[in-house]
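User: Fold this; tokens only.

Assistant: Input:
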Amino acid sequence: MIYNFLNSYYTESVFGNLQNVALPPKHIEDYQKFIPETVSELKHLGEKLKGLRLCHVSATSMGGGVSEILHSMVPLQNDIGIQTTWYVLPGDEAFFMVTKNIHNFMQGKEGNLSDEEKQIYLSYNDELADQIAQIEADILIIHDPQPAASIEKLKKVPHRFKKILWRCHMDTSDPNRSVWDFLFPYLSAYDHVIFSLEEFSQHAFPKEKMSIITPGIDPLTEKNIPMNRTEALEYIKRVGIKVDDPYIVQVSRFDPWKDPLGLINVFRNVKEVFPKLQLVFIGQIASDDPEGEEVLRKMKEAIGEEKDIFIFTDFDVKGVNAFQQNAFVVFQKSIKEGFGLTVTEAMWKKKVVIGGNTGGIRLQIQDGVNGYLVNSIEEASATLSQLLSNPSPMQRISKSAYESVRTHHLMPHKIRDYFKLFESFHLHTS
């Protein structure tokens, strides 16, 4: 996904090369108008947990769903009374190349890590653990595989953290077994693990050590607040899109699991019948994703000189909002997907989403009720063609899409789920 977090910045950290992400404040009261019951419950839980110190550690502060979530979650947790910090890893090209491979392997890519790659990964985590161990917190949450192996040394630091959690944001429903087996001794050492879907866990953890918490969006970010239609259309026209003709959009990392080449084929199939159709890709190459440049190169090669396909790599959140809000249909044609926050964002904007029938997309979309699930290029082409021929079902589906997000997938829902988990730990913070 493309996110340009203009309001966040790194501060010099006393913890070596770890970077502390400082964020502007947010206020839970502002969410009362969407889900008042959930906000009330959350404030009550916050009172019970007051004084708890929480720290998140993730790979990067921008580019991708994890950073999107934490940019909202961290300041809201602080506002409710939980002392929350967020640190990101120092950049290292060789390490991030290895962890991108690990990410792909954990989502099912064939092959294996070389001995050299394993050594790079473990050495980096060993050094990282020395820095993390200086943080003072009651609960430490490690996000995704990049810093996961730091647990080995952290477990040897007595009484530094009362609970250390691992949060998986990937679709690990069918992982590469050799790489899963390599990581599993580290993952099983955590006090608790969190997945977005139960099937991602491989049923490899005791029930009392595992929770299922899905991600969610913040309805009060600039990307999710409704834009004035005239302003949005002007924004789109400025970059060459014909606003009187339909366009479809996919917002995502440049990642093979998002199947951008497959979507190009869908577009070509449908354009034979609907020649005015346009296709827009909006993406960003995250700092921990060295594979992105290669995927972007393959996309450009596949498009060639073809008109009406646009790739944008430098939009801010306002531009993402404008494109999602005014698309005929939003696509997320993923082959694997941990959750798919761009699906949630589009549904919140009352858009019809056509998504790959996989992982967290399947959790969000009920086919034909609040969106459409597709298993192939052919199914995606047929579904889009049908909607272009007969858009009458779209109003019903878009309303259902919005309501399903309002009921289940807003940020306060997710913070509540975390707080319920923290409460179950029975920690004494005084």
